[in-house]
Amino acid sequence: WLPCELPGTIVHVTIDGFYAGHIVIADQPKPDAKEAIVQLKAMGVKKTVMLTVDKKDTAEAVRRETGVDEAYSQLMPQDKVSRVEGLLGEEHTVAFVGDGINDAPVLSRADVGIAMGALGSDAAIEAADVVIMNDSPRGIARAIRISRKCMRIVYENITFAIAVKLICLVLGAIGYADMWLAVFADVGVMVIAVLNAIRALHDGWHAEKHA
Question: Minimal CA–CA distance to 51: which of 13, 98, 85?
């Protein structure tokens, strides 16, 4: 038989007792995996880590191809949990992405569990906080962008509502507030906050359109 340096499972084939060659069986990274890593790093993600049950050479090949910072191979489910707990001990906010039933314990343990929903197991989907339904790694960066935008809108609405009500209280205390100002401080602020929140729907639609 002939040696093979390619990463993956090697299947040697014989025909009528004569060696015919070998077949390499290996998982291929998703086409947009490298782009997703680039987007995540551009958004401020400090470190990307791959935890896999595959052999070291396979893990290293995928790591180099996708641009992941670190790769840990030949890990059982409990080993993945230990690695994630080690990252949590470094006071990082840890998000874990998985789709298999063996990933369910880690999805529950991480700060944020993200499951790939199209082909993911029911256990992984149940344990996750976020489910990417199209199984595209770029969806992770898109979900982070939308969530950050939503949080900014929430803080804007809270700040605006409190500021308007404090101004109304001050004006009321010195005798300058009338009924119309009170109506604006209540109903008007609510309407403005709802209109401001609609921007999150537009951003989500825009991101999905250009996905």
Answer: 98
